[in-house]
Amino acid sequence: MASGGPEIEQLIQLLARLPGLGPRSARRAVLHLIKKKEQLMLPLSAALDRAVLAVKSCEVCGNVDTTSPCSICADPRRGESGILIVVEDVADLWALERAGVGQVRYHVLGGVLSPLDGVGPDDLNLEGLIARAHDYSEIVLAMNATVEGQTTAHYITDRLTGTDIRVTRLAHGVPVGGELDYLDEGTLSQALKARTVI
Amino acid sequence: MASGGPEIEQLIQLLARLPGLGPRSARRAVLHLIKKKEQLMLPLSAALDRAVLAVKSCEVCGNVDTTSPCSICADPRRGESGILIVVEDVADLWALERAGVGQVRYHVLGGVLSPLDGVGPDDLNLEGLIARAHDYSEIVLAMNATVEGQTTAHYITDRLTGTDIRVTRLAHGVPVGGELDYLDEGTLSQALKARTVI
Ligand SMILES: [Zn+2]
Ligand SMILES: [Zn+2]
Fold first, then answer.
1. Cis omega (within 30 of 0) for bond into A175
2. Could you say which residues from 71 to 110 on chain A have a Cβ atom under 8 Å away from some Cβ of chain B?
3. Using an 8 Å Cβ cutoff, are A114 and A53 in contact?
4. B40 CA distance to ligand 1 middle (Å)
5. Which residues on A lie below 8 Å from B50 (Cβ)?
6. Which of A35, B61, B78, B162 has the most CB atoms around its CB within 10 Å?
């Protein structure tokens, strides 16, 4: 039977569809919300309403913001470096921003090429990238180090061949604070090849 | 810097306060919501609004429902067994309902006695339990098998001494599907003591 009535059951089922939450943790989350009705449930309800109205996808780069163009695309200082970082996903853009990579711009592909999953060039924001790439002097390919990520990087590199745009990728290596014996051999050998003088 | 504007940042911070979600998973959840705006974000927003309006705490048992008395307290068949199960939390009530324990009623204490944390009898729904216990022939104490849970069980047992109400507790034993070598010794020795003929 459904515990707590249809309104509560439906809230549990919707929350269970969020990444990282299953039916069990969604139930715990809903009980927590109900317990903290004034301090958490009401503010969350209001914040969600506000976000639904405010959220836009940036028509230039694919970032998520409350304006389009987004605050990064609209900031002229972001253009001065001439660096455009290509990422798979908005989450990657946010991660680079948290890392404080500096006054750069981004381009969100919205995925990676994956012939097996039926994802071709037209399914990604690739033409938008090729069109705006010419405004930048360097394109940093920051796709994940997966087969699909690297296939996508090759595709973009090919498309930009013959231009004078510098195409680079993120360095491979040992994560800061990472322990060597937890790393795969590919990372280790790349880290050794790319070793630097101290 | 805040990624995605103040509306998104605030939503992340509120979601991060749910049990099982941290700042990282809250960010992922919000990005997922934004990606699935029509299919998930809008329905979740509406469901939360409805739940905020509908949710009530049952004045009889402490359950969470959309009516008070809750559907369990209002159902006369639930009273026929004469069994009242005392739980710490609404989550425990829901777990017992999912387990299909039958036509019983519940009483939610809202916590356990914990002198170290300053939780005394007046902080729990204990007087309500003592008052309604006399309508039942058996009180099953289903608090967690912690020191505080057992202290609370003793307190209730003492309060009901001298009445003709039968006070019981859940059996200890090996969880169904549980592996012996992952169990603590207390559980194992209790399971051996309570062994049954096959
Ligand atoms: Zn943008
Ligand atoms: Zn009730």
1. no
2. 71, 89-91, 93-94, 97-98
3. no
4. 24
5. 7, 10-11
6. B61
Distant-in-sequence, close-in-space partners of B14: CB < 8 Å, separation ≥ 6? A40, A43, A44, A47
What is the band of B126 on the pLDDT scale with cuts at 50, 70, 90? Answer: very high
Contact A109, A125 (CB under 8 A): yes
Ligand 2 centroid, distance to A30 Cα (angstroms): 18
What are A196's two structure tokens?
């630097």
pLDDT at B129 over 60: yes
Token digits of residue B149 = 């849970």
- Strand pairing of B56-57 and B64-65? antiparallel
Please give, rounded to a whole number of angstroms, the shortest distance from the CA of A77 to a CA of chain B.
15
Q: Nearest residue on chain B to A67, judged by CA atoms?
A: B5
d(CA B139, CA A9): 28
How many percent of chain B have pLDDT more than 70?
A: 95
Q: Which ligand is nearest to the CA of A64?
A: 1
Query: B106 CA distance to ligand 2 centroid (A)?
Result: 7
Q: ipTM greater than 0.85, yes or no?
A: no
**Chain A interface includes B34 (CB < 8 A):** yes
Give the separation between CA A138 and CA A2, rounded to whole angstroms.
56
Q: Taking CB atoms and an 8 Å limit, are A7 and B93 in contact across chains?
A: no
pLDDT of residue A87: 93
Q: How far apart are CA B150 and CA A177, in angstroms?
A: 44
Q: Give per-residue pLDDT as tens, A110-164.
A: 999 999 999 999 999 999 999 999 999 999 998 888 889 999 999 999 999 999 9
The two three-digit tokens of residue B160, written as one number: 């009901």
Tell me the residue length of chain B: 198
Contact of A69 with B36, CB cutoff 8 Å: no
What's the half-sphere exposure (Cβ side, CA atoms, 13 Å) at A108?
Answer: 22
Q: Which residue ranges form the domains of chain A, and what is each CATH number?
A: 5-54 (1.10.8.420), 64-169 (3.40.1360.10)
